[in-house]
Design a protein that fits this description.
Layout (H helix, E strand, L loop, with lengths): L6 H7 L7 E4 L5 H14 L11 H13 L4 E6 L2 E10 L9 E8 L8 H15 L4 E7 L3 H9 L3 E12 L2 E11 L2
Parallel strand pairs: 4-5
Antiparallel strand pairs: 1-2, 2-3, 3-4, 5-7, 6-7
Length: 182
């Protein structure tokens, strides 16, 4: 990821630097999405996944989101994918069909520069347009950045499951935040 270093600070400090462009993810984005997600899997508790999925699996997941008619977005800055987010089915039972769960991941050198907020705001707009009633964030471990991001866009804590998962030898809580969309 050395080729990406400094992009976020350049965009934040340079008055005329471009803003990230939020757009639907395409198959060409899968290698970038896979690389961003792999870093989170290997180095953080932001996901409870232990082994990073390969590009084939990430493609399958992207396709599953689209097949349900839900949005899968990327943030592109100066030609580089710097983050992604998507909405997925919250629970498999039909009665939950109007509630979705968001997932959002931003390259570490771009965290704190508004990329996540742009991605999540657009995801909320697209979910509203698709008739979703609520969106849930399931935040694993101690992740104040994600909690603050979601709170800044109207999410409220809806529950906390202590010691719901284990990663890196540590028991992790699962905070659930929710925003009603309609």
């Amino acid at each position: 990821m050395g080729a990406y270093s400094g992009i976020a600070s350049l965009a934040h400090e340079t008055p005329h630097a471009s803003q990230p462009f939020i757009r639907p993810a395409t198959p060409a984005d899968i290698p970038h999405i896979t690389a961003i997600y792999a870093k989170f899997v290997l180095t953080s508790t932001a996901t409870s996944e232990i082994v990073p999925p390969d590009e084939t699996e990430m493609y399958r997941r992207w396709r599953a989101v689209l097949d349900r008619g839900l949005p899968y977005l990327v943030a592109e800055l100066e030609g580089y994918v710097v983050g992604f987010c998507y909405a997925s089915q919250f629970r498999p039972r039909e009665g939950y069909r109007y509630t979705v769960e968001d997932s959002i991941y931003v390259r570490s050198d771009c965290i704190g520069h508004g990329v996540g907020k742009l991605l999540l705001a657009e995801l909320i707009r697209e979910c509203q347009a698709k008739g979703c009633h609520s969106i849930v964030a399931c935040i694993v471990g101690n992740n104040p950045t994600s909690v603050a991001l979601h709170a800044s866009l109207g999410f409220q804590q809806a529950g906390l499951l202590p010691e719901a998962g284990k990663k890196f030898g540590e028991w992790l809580s699962l905070m659930m935040m929710q925003r009603l969309l309609s």
